[in-house]
Design brief:
By secondary structure, this protein is mainly α. The chain is built from 6 helices and no strands. The longest helix has 18 residues, at 30-47.
Length: 172
Amino acid sequence: MQARRKEIDSAISFIRNGALTQQVCRYAFAPVCRNLAGILRSFLYVSTFGYSDEQLPTVFAQKIYGIALCHTLFPFDTGDFVYYLTREKSIHTDDPADLDNWHLMMEIAGDDLGVSALIERLNERAYEIWTNYKTPFEWKYDERIWNLEFENVSKRLHYAGVRAFTGLNKAE
């Protein structure tokens, strides 16, 4: 893995960035690909010893939610939700008082985007995956996902965040 790490990381980037291309972004699976890339990248880092032993339980717990994002075909890349946290908050913290910032971020984004019911379903699926961790269940999904087109709000949110962060106001 270590010898091929750069190539594998490049393939993961292709999956993540390819989901924003005109050819792919119109499909309902596009945000799922971006979330899947987050899982793959974390597990690549795990397999190449990119995390300390102390970090692994947190990484695995976070990826339970990543798997739930894919299972529920969540229509957003949650990486774009960080803009919903205040400047004083981060989802990456060592402060025990801030360990639930991911859920805070999801709650705020869910309220603002009107997708709180989807986030509740996501939380339920994450709980189901967590409680069945030692006995995984089959992932069944509707095959129509590969042809289902939708309005990609996730892509618009991504580029709005990029513009806000960089101060650019050019079109997507």
